[in-house]
Amino acid sequence: MKEQILILGGGVIGLATAFELSRREYDVTVVEKASCGGQASGAAAGMLAPFSEIGEDPDDFFQLCLDSLRLYPRWQRDVKEASGLDFEYSESGSLHAVYHEAELLGLETRQAWQRQFGVEAEIITGDRLRQLEPDLSEQMIAAMHYPEESHLFAPDYVKALESACLRQGVTIAEQLEEVTVERWREEIVLRSKAGRTFQGDRLIVCSGAWAQELENVFDLRIPVYPIRGQICAYDLPVGRINHIVYTSQGYVVPKANGTLVNGASEDIAGFQTEVTKKGIDRLTNWNKNIFPFLQEMTPFHTWAGLRPATQDGFPLLGALLEAPHVIFATGHYRNGILLSPVTAKAVADILDGKQNYAPLVSCRPERFSY
C-alpha cells in the first residue's frame, strides 16, 4: 500500500512537492485553507535570478538557489507535459545594473566568487550595455550580465502545477477556511473548520506566511513572518525590453504577454494584502531611473502578496529530528518560485530515504529552538 502523504498548504512549494511526490508513486493530498497559489505564489514576478539577488557570499542558501535554477530547464518541461498547459518560461538573461563608479568593485567581487560556482557573468559598460538595452537610463554606468538568469509567468506556472498534480492523481482540498493539526506524533490527522478529517502517514508543512501559527502544535519556534510585497505592471510592446533589469532599488521584468512587471515594494503589514498608494509610489518614483520612458506611463495593474520571511533568511526545510515523519518546507520568502524544484526534490529524497542534501544543514526546522 502506498504511503499517504498530507501536504499542509497549496502554494507553489506545496504544489511542486505534491507534483514530485506523485511522480514517485506516493499517495498525496494537498490541504489548503484558501485557494491554491493565492498568496505569494500567484503574486510573484517569477524571477529566477539568484546571482542578482545574492551578492554577499557563497553559503548554503546560494547553493540551494543555484541548484534549483539549474533544475528548471528540465523541470518546467516536465510540468508542461504533465499538466497539458503552457506557461511562459524565458531564458532572457539579466542585467544587474549600477549607477556609480564606487559600485564597480562590488560587481567585481561578486563576479569573482560566483565564478567558482561556474556562473557565467560579465561586466559590461558603455555602448555594449546600450546595445543590450537601448532605452536604459544614461545614469547606468555598468551592469553584470547573467545569461543564465530566467523568469516565468507565475500565475500560469502555479495553474500548471495544480493541473499536473490533479492529472497525476493528487487530491486537492481547498477553501477549507481553517485547518487544525489534531495529531502528529505517531499518526497524522488534520481537521477542517467544517469537520472534514484527513489522515496520513507523513505530513509536509508548506504553510508559508502562516507557519508561525503551528508553534504551539509542534512546540517549536517558527519565526516566519508575512512581508507584504507590492508590484505594478505596465503595458509595453514585446521586444522593447529584453532582459530582467535588477538594481539596488528593485527590478523590472518584461513578459511575453506585453507587460512590464515592476517590483517590489515591501513592508510589514501583518496579513493585510491591500495595495497602498505609498507602496506603489515607491516603485513609480524610482523606476524612471532605470528606463526614463516610464516617467510618462501609468501602471495598468497593481497587486500585493504575502512573502514568508524567516528570522535568518533561510527556509525551514527538513524532517523533525524527533518526528521524522513530519517535514517542514516553508519560509522561502521571495524565492518560493525559484526554489520550488529543489525543495520538491529535497522533500521527496527525504521520504525516499536518500542521503541528506548538504545545504539542508543550514535549513534545519528546529534551529531556532536550541
From TrEMBL:
GO cellular component terms given for this protein: cytoplasm
Catalytic reaction equation(s): glycine + O2 + H2O = glyoxylate + H2O2 + NH4(+)
Biological process annotations from GO: thiamine biosynthetic process
Pfam families according to UniProt: DAO
GO molecular function: flavin adenine dinucleotide binding; glycine oxidase activity
Entry annotated with the keyword Metal-binding: no
Keywords for the protein's UniProt record, in alphabetical order: Oxidoreductase, Thiamine biosynthesis
EC number: 1.4.3.19
InterPro entries in alphabetical order: FAD-dep_OxRdtase, FAD/NAD-bd_sf, Gly_oxidase_ThiO
Domain FAD dependent oxidoreductase: 5-349
Gene3D superfamilies for the chain: D-Amino Acid Oxidase, subunit A, domain 2, FAD/NAD(P)-binding domain
Enzyme's top EC category: oxidoreductase
Database matches in NCBIfam families: thiamin_ThiO
PANTHER family: GLYCINE OXIDASE, SARCOSINE DEHYDROGENASE-RELATED
Name used for this protein in its record: glycine oxidase
Lineage: Bacteria, Bacillati, Bacillota, Bacilli, Bacillales
